[in-house]
Amino acid sequence: MTSTNFDPRILKAPHPVPGAPDNWKRFFSINTDAKVIGIQYIATSLLFLLVGGLLAMIVRGELITPEADLVDPTVYNGLYTMHGTVMLFLFLFPVLNGLNNLLIPTMIGAPDMAFPKLNAAAFWLVPVFAVLLMASFFVPGGPAQAGWWSYPPVSIQNPLGHFFNGQMLWLLAVALSGISSIFGAINFVTTIIRMRAPGMGFFKMPLYCWTAWGAQTIQLIGLPALTGGAIMLLFDLSFGTSFFKPEGGGDPVLYQHFFWFYSHPAVYVMVLPVFGIFSEVFTCYSRKPLFGYKFVALASFGIVFLSLIVWVHHMFYTGTPNWMRILFMFTTMTIAVPTGVKVFAWVATLWRGKLRLTTPMLFCLGGLVNFIFAGITGVMLGTVPIDIHVGNTYFVVAHFHYVIFNAIVLGVFAAVYHWFPKFTGHMYYEGLGKLHFALTFIGCTLNWLPLHWAGLLGMPRRVASYDPEFAIWNVIASVGAFLLGVAAIPFILNMVSSWARGPKAPPNPWGAIGLEWLLPSPPPAENFEDDVPTVLNNPYGYGLDQPQVADEAFYVRRAQEA
Amino acid sequence: MTPTTPIKKGPNLGAIAVITVAVAANLALSWLMAQWSYGWFPPQASTAAPYVDNLFALETGIGTFVFLGCTGVMAWSLLFDRAPKYDESYGAPIEGNTRLEITWTLIPTVVVFAIAIYSMQVNDKLDALGPKHKYAIGSDPLVGAMADPRATVGPIDVIARQWSWEFVYPNGVRSSELHLPINQRVNFRLISEDVNHSFYVPAFRLKQDIVPGSVISFSLTPTKEGRFRLRDAHFSGAYYSQNQTDVLVQPQSTYDDWLKTTAKQPLQPGLSPGNELYAKRLETGDRGWATVPPAPPPMVNDPGDASIPHDA
Fold first, then answer.
1. Domain CATH number, residue A307
2. Which one has a higher pLDDT value, B144 or A159?
3. Which domain holds residue A324?
4. At residue B6, does pLDDT exceed 60?
5. What is the ipTM of this complex?
6. Does residue A12 carry a pLDDT above 60?
7. Which chain B residues are Cβ-neighbours of A278 within 8 angstroms?
8. Within-domain flag for A22
9. DSSP state string for A53-116
10. Is residue A325 a part of any domain in this protein?
């Protein structure tokens, strides 16, 4: 395969913030070092995980009884809308971009991202739209209330008639988030294609880079549709256009196409990097090569391609003609194949390994079990007749959260633990990590498993009140949700105390294979600096007794002495 | 790559026995789960319902088999392939097996396509969605809207608003609850006067969004007498969760009598839960975030009774 030779010295961008690079203040200033930006992204997004989680707990508090008795229904609608928005645009996308910033350059041996300043700009848009979104709680009329889909006409009814309203700020924030993510995507794709270490052909690249590359390709293709759709909706709301208004000759269903053309693939933007994390973690803690590396790598792009041609399955009951429903059912079903290839490969990777049940391994195992479950309910939802019954019910909410939380967020936690020593230079506490896993796994199962049955019985999603026959499932779910709130405590305690005073981390505490583990913990500003290693063999060569890079002993020694 | 352990000659009878028992147990559990899945639904009250439930049972069975298969192998590894403490050695350095990888690509492809083809046939049986007719707001929506020629009842106009339901029968009767005769194909013209709504009756297993600016023709055949919930299943604003009413499936004679007697009733305000809640909100100081005011209650001949419990 192709391998790109580059001279890392030409990429030495000056770091515009004066002062020592080890100064803690660098995390609070505009900095162009990908590792600083990565931690900025992750810290910001974890903060918003708490905000989104708090909103979720109020939502579950309302739903613990059938009546709408905790908050006014309008407040409920605003809270669930902001829960979804915060979790997607302020937690998941930023946290994954944070991991990309930390992992992509170090895994491919690059000193930094291809466009360090663009990288900083992409990050600093996050606090800007975060402030916009949080400010919308305080404008007259409250925040957006139309769900994270924000379908017109309900989203553009603007009851108070003010120019500045929650929905307007929401749309501005989403458009800015789109722009930020496009900046990020340009950077990640360029970095992966152009800045790999000598010898690292595409088929010697770690799986995380494959999946991040696939995910960011989706961002480049899909995000313009959503961002454009959000701007058109903003014009309908604020400037009197009628792209989506039936009274002006527009079509509200058109918005749904713009929205789902991106927002279905968006789930793959989030899940693909977690597939990468699974591949890194399962190999490392099973002490085995990844089963069928090339298949798994190529399956990533199979998923990318298919993810772009399935969006109408969100619109099976909007009046979509029958031929189109059938067509999109077939494309949707096909996506189970490359995803299945990955699942089987991970299961085979565990087989006859030497399994170590560390915190990241536990999170990945739990995440994989949940992902298999979510994949099965996904196939069910992909078939038109089932979707007609359970679409827009709690079955979909349960399926979605099985993907987004029970699989993706568990994978993100695994990554945070697995690479914590590498980028902070400190070890975390295993006991607290395992407690965090146990509480999270029990909490998320209690929260979302029962809601499948509520959906099958016909409980619609987004309701502030419901018929009493659904009460039992909702009580269990709310208990699970509060347990997830409790699970945050050992996590925060672990992260803060370990970074402050955890034992010093060696360069490679897990005996892992990968370029990042040849660097000191934490790596210096420009990673390998002038001695970029030449890659000789496939990643994940556990037990194969082959050197990963030329002159490996030199890098190991240098990292230990640093 | 070949595994490092020497390959034994002849079939490994122990392994074959374990795999046979595991697959048999998995098949039995999957079949049981598929049977149980019928109990997870409301009663079957339309011709569509049994088809949907059968498809779901099939997918539950296949899904259970896949889930238990994968997690079973994972559980085996977790039980028997654990590294002892301080064991730094590697697992079996297996890099892949092309034949196995092709198998687990082809078999799922065949399985999902088989499910999709079966679903396509089930979808034909549902036979619910008719043509969609777009109209200019302000004009009469029903001019040019097509009716289902195979329906023996209807077309009944379903008008959804923020937040009420109104049903208009061919003889001009208006009601807040939907009355249908059993075992007859009935055709609806779905109309929204404001935002998106969705016509969803879980006992029928059918759902259709209602889009402003379009009249959607939709047909179904109820098969079970009773009082079933009709829920708005598309978020429609502040009092969306209250936007539900009941469908009464009745014998033909009861339905005919009802139509006849109701036609003589004067028009009166129908069910409009949004209005009650909004009035309460205004009384208590209009707290909460902004909402559009509810549409006035529909004027109907039969306002129904929201206090009667529903069957499903």
1. 1.20.210.10
2. A159
3. 28-561
4. no
5. 0.95
6. no
7. none
8. no
9. HHHHHHHHHHTTSSS--SS-HHHHHHHHHHHHHIIIIIIIHHHHHHHHHHHHHHHHT-SS-SSH
10. yes
